[in-house]
Design brief:
- The protein has 414 residues and is of the alpha/beta class.
- Helices cover 39% and strands 19% of the residues.
- The protein folds into two domains: 17-297, tm_1862 like domain (pyruvate-formate lyase- activating enzyme, Alpha-Beta Horseshoe), CATH 3.80.30; 344-413, no CATH class.
- The strands form three sheets. Strands 7-8-6-5-4-3-2-1-9 form a nine-stranded mixed beta sheet, sandwiched between helices.
- Residues 31-274 form the Radical SAM core domain.
- This is Heme chaperone HemW.
Length: 414
């Protein structure tokens, strides 16, 4: 369904051990940033846990001792210093994008988020046109905090709206009021943010077509230049999954999710926002999330924070998940890396096809082997690939193809 991704290798800690000093093979560091370089910063703190969330996040009660928000910026800067030592004589030419995600990054003081960004600039240098994004829950920002973040160099904000329906927000255990997200979007614009995203979830049990239509109306009225919309995924171990197992809530419907996606495409396209990735729409090319485009096009990035993933020169690694263990390792002068893997040619090809096919630019048919090209022909015949682009040598999803993106990927990677 739209908003889902085929599982990628390396998301479980079953790779090889990361050296204590975090060192990388010379083959990985020889051309760092040749295709772009980004920095991801994971902030694992949340005021409360949403019922659908299985992200690596922690409330104060879940953290226990040994980790604190107050010391977190310094801990991230310690990992940044380690990253500088690892890349050593092969630093990236510049940092093109920074993305601070979570969790709720804006639970940290704006001054701490500013210090982290300044540390990245001092370490590797921010590009003159750097994109700097922070995620935020609508209730975690104020006009003053937004002005301080903008003054610190943050250019883009992504607000977790999810829905404009009070009933849907209650089922998702969201704490903000139904109108707070769009109010925060307007405040971000007033604070000078160049780009503002609203993040939506559709297909929640109990959500009616008119609920989602009202959500889209609010999004359009807010005048944002970017929208992300994802089908609800029920993850094992969450409160939402437990409620569904008990029969309190119905499981999400694929048919309903498809209807919601079509509604989003119609409303956003009419408002001047065009899809550029299956689950993302932007008003202009400049409004597209450049950081995510680095991920989708196989560039390099360093992930800072507990549970963060990194990729440099075909080597992917991931940090220990708990903030206490993460801080303890760095305090001992050791890498917080838990495990890593060196992508094989076949794995790199699979991910390239899987991710680039989701983009409006698609991928060249020439990168597919004979079996994959035969699959592309079938997808074309089924109306899942655009005929004009296919004739020009590219595989680009049609609207129906976007609804069945994962199935098309499987056909191109037999």
């Amino acid at each position: 369904m739209p908003g889902t991704l085929v599982a990628m290798p390396g998301v479980l800690p079953d790779g090889e051990t990361v050296p204590v000093d975090g060192s990388l093979p010379a083959t990985a560091t020889s051309a760092v940033g040749a295709r772009g370089f980004g920095v991801y910063v994971h902030v694992p703190f949340c005021a409360s846990r949403c019922g659908y969330c299985d992200f690596n996040t922690y409330t104060a009660a879940e953290l226990g001792g040994g980790a604190s928000r107050e010391a977190y910026a310094d801990t991230v800067l310690a990992e940044l210093a380690l990253a500088a030592r690892v890349l050593g004589d092969n630093p990236p030419p510049r940092v093109d994008t920074v993305f601070v995600g979570g969790g709720t990054p804006t639970l940290l003081p704006a001054d701490d988020l500013a210090r982290i960004l300044d540390g990245i600039d001092r370490t590797w240098g921010l590009a003159a046109d750097v994109e700097v994004t922070t995620e935020a829950n609508p209730e975690s920002v104020t006009p003053e905090s937004l002005r301080r973040l903008r003054a610190a160099g943050y250019t883009r904000i992504s607000l977790g709206m999810q829905s404009a329906s009070p009933g849907v927000l209650a089922i998702l255990d969201r704490k903000h009021s139904a109108g707070r997200a769009t109010d925060a979007a307007l405040e971000a614009r007033d604070a000078g943010f160049e780009h503002v995203n609203l993040d939506l979830i559709y297909g929640t049990p109990g959500e009616r077509a008119e609920d989602f239509a009202a959500t889209l109306e609010q999004v359009v009225a807010a005048g944002v230049d970017h929208v992300s919309a994802y089908a609800l995924i029920v993850e094992d171990g969450t409160r939402l999954a437990a409620r569904m197992r008990r029969g309190e809530l119905a499981y999400p419907s694929d048919d309903v999710a498809a209807d919601r996606y079509l509604a989003a495409e119609a409303a956003l396209d009419a408002a001047g926002l065009s899809w550029y990735e299956v689950s993302n729409w932007a008003r202009t090319d400049a409004a597209r999330c450049r950081h995510n485009l680095l991920y989708w096009t196989g560039a390099d990035w360093w992930g800072l924070g507990p549970g963060a993933h990194s990729h440099v020169g075909g080597v992917r690694w991931w940090n220990v998940k708990h903030p206490t263990t993460y801080a303890q390792r760095l305090a001992a002068g050791a890498s917080p890396g838990l495990a890593r893997e060196v992508l094989t040619v076949d794995e790199a090809h699979m991910e390239d096809v899987m991710l680039r096919l989701r983009l409006a630019s698609g991928l060249p048919l020439a990168v597919l082997d004979a079996a994959g090209q035969a699959g592309a022909e079938r997808a074309l015949a089924d109306g899942l690939l655009a005929a004009g682009d296919y004739a020009a040598g590219r595989a680009v999803l049609t609207l129906r193809g976007r609804l069945l993106a994962d199935a098309v990927v499987r056909d191109l990677l037999p």
